[in-house]
Records
---
Amino acid sequence: MTLTVNPASPAVPPTPPPVVLTVQNLTVVYEVERPVTAVKNVSLELARGEILGLAGESGCGKTTLAYAINRLHKPPASIASGEITFHDKADGDLNLLTLGAEQLRMFRWDKLSMVFQGAMNALNPVTTVRAQLEDVLTTHRPEMKKAERRELAASVLQLVGVDRSRLASYAHELSGGMRQRVMIAMALLLEPQVMIMDEPTTALDVVVQREILREIVRLRDELNFAVIFITHDLPLLLEISDRIAIMLAGEIVEIDTATNIYRNPQHPYTKKLLGSFPSLTGERGSFIRSGVNNSAELS
Ligand SMILES: Nc1ncnc2c1ncn2[C@@H]1O[C@H](COP(=O)(O)OP(=O)(O)O)[C@@H](O)[C@H]1O
Ligand SMILES: [Mg+2]
């Protein structure tokens, strides 16, 4: 008789699943007197390392979708139906809709982080940048030694283009662009697999906005996290996204590569949206990622 032995763990770690997040038939309703279905039957897949742009006019449901994915929606918003699955590289599939409060707390920031609309005003005014970055590490990486926390906070800050001397600063001592970079550093600190950015640069002037976007693309190239980048600014999305989803009145009406959305839009609303930006119908501006992926074909 032979004994069955457990197979030895493979020498090479298994490759992580190519898709990191799947949203299936998600519907989110604001249960007010006249209920508003802000997200209608939305399905999408986010590939590992991909930048997915989400575009659509104000009020179409972008923020509601982002909050629901991170389970940050609050009453009167409720998820009426659908599934959200996170394909974790270590723990396999996580059904986000069934995570308990403690599991959610561990999940957020660690595996999926979010930079909110107006996040730069979310920094605590009475503690230093260092204290706020180290706080995230104390909570999520309790095993880390103080010196390691200090070093990691400083190096992530540098990664987003802020000098480590700024660790000692308070929010009011920083420009808007710098504050937003600090928020991005916080979102990157635990090396999440997905980062959702909801209009992260809208409040900034155009030059600072460009610099930060260039930084995000560079960091993605370096760290390979996936991004859902939300904005009403379609020209900007064409520059930085691998794929773009077009949202209209709660529905995703078209989702395709940035090149196809630009060159060969299918839905009438996508065509209308493209037509509403004069810069897109004339000469194309220079692209942030010139020579990379679809941008090369677009320019
Ligand atoms: N707390 C709320 N109660 C009722 N309706 C809401 C609430 N928040 C948002 N909505 C509605 O949900 C829709 C989508 O809003 P939102 O997700 O903020 O859109 P976007 O981010 O694309 O501008 C809008 O029609 C908005 O009026
Ligand atoms: Mg919004």
Note: Residues 283-299 have pLDDT under 50 and may be disordered.
---
Amino acid sequence: MAITVALLPLTVTLIFGLACILLLYYLFVKKEKPKGLPHGSMGWPFLGETFSFLKPHKSNSIGSFLQQHFSRYGNVFKSHLFGCPTIVSGDLELNNFILLNEDKLFQSYYPKSVQDILGKLSLMLVSGELHKKLRTVALSFIANSKSSPDFLLYVDNLTISVMDSWKGCQEIHYAKEAKKFTLYVMLKNLLNIEPEEQLASQMLEDYLSYMKGLVSLPLCFPGTPYAKALKARARISRTIREIIEERRKKEGPKRGDFLDEMMNKRSEELNDEERVSIVMDLLFAGYETTAGLLSLLLYYLAQAPEALEQLKQEHQSLTKSKKHGDPLSWQDIQQLNFNSHVVNETLRCGNLVKFVHRRALQDVNFRGYHIPGGWQVLPVFTAVHLDPSLHDSPSDFNPWRWNDEAINKKVNPFGGGTRLCPGTELAKLEATIFLHHLIRNYRWKLKEDTDFPLSYPYLEFSKGLKLEIQPTNDIS
Ligand code: HEM
């Protein structure tokens, strides 16, 4: 008995030692890290490196976080972001591989806080058959709009009225003007809401809050941007639902907008929750990014007099070939080759969408990189757009580089694969019509040298893009 008691501490020590050895074996030998897992750092517990990754930087740069990580670990690295172990890719081939394998090896996956604002039926979040069904409806709106003379005429008239409203002004806050313009185009064509209606300005304010919430910390206390965004989302969704219910009650002449078209679909094809969600997606995706494009265009052209001159000449010769006052048609826009180079270069340099969120559905091996199943994957478009091994002097705004068609394969401002942005042509069309009137009617200058596009990670101008404007007399 005495011997047994004397041996007790030794036995406990032995068991403890054995347990430690087993644990170490499990951690370092048995659970050996998979070969090919990219290098990188997982940062702080839970927070990982999220704050450094999201630190705002000029949108024509990749920012200090990516710069440091790419030079230390290469342009594919591991990290811990938005609460998940993550592979970050700044590699063109890996990015394309991720986008092209949607629903096979990878799937769209946004953080919970973003999901709560977008809504569970948002196109960006749903997958499989539901994604196909909702996307087809969204695509039909976009296809009909771009070929509809009424739509083109509306964009043309709204552009003219925006520019008329600048008469007598020497200075404008252009970023907000662009947001108003693109939201009002969408509101009219989706819901038949006119810019002068009180509902239009209420929607604008709600979408501004919505956007601020998307990029803020997900703190749901009264008064935080996140809480305000959730409220704004609920208000927008309620308003669209009320419009649907009102239309259903009032039998009468159709308005011919997209909501009417969706309401004609039987409820087995589309229910009201899906209708509301599609309208919200198109309003949001259609206005915010296109407004960013309009702002970036003016920002870059203000600093590129040669490009602006060539653009003016191209638009002027198109105007001369048309009957006075006729709006641009889709075919006219296709002919504007240099205009298309300017828009494409603006998207490459300005980087409206820095990255997208995906998740690996299983273990994936690509070119020696191992991506564990369940990990988050972030293809970073900005890194590819500004990669000096793909583009000469990548941060220079040089629309002529688009004379080489090979560049099309080295950029993806609109994403790719089955989630390729359906609004690509609509955004280019709106931007072109706006430019067509602007360059013939106004000269503009950046008011402040210190105002530049920031990646927040969504695009924002640090001072709202204040412009000095002056009407020209060279209207032909
Ligand atoms: C310059 C303007 C635009 C840019 C840079 C842009 C960029 C993008 C990108 C990168 C995606 C892919 C997101 C992902 O893969 O997770 C996307 C998706 C989407 N965009 Fe755009 N977009 C623009 C304009 C528009 C417009 C005008 C509309 C509609 C009127 C629109 C509607 C959508 C929709 C509905 C999706 C989701 C598609 C899906 O998941 O199937 N976008 N956009």
Note: Residues 108, 123-124, 135, 138, 142, 281-282, 285-286, 289-290, 293, 352-353, 356, 413-415, 419, 421-423, 426-427 surround protoporphyrin IX containing FE (CB under 6 Å).
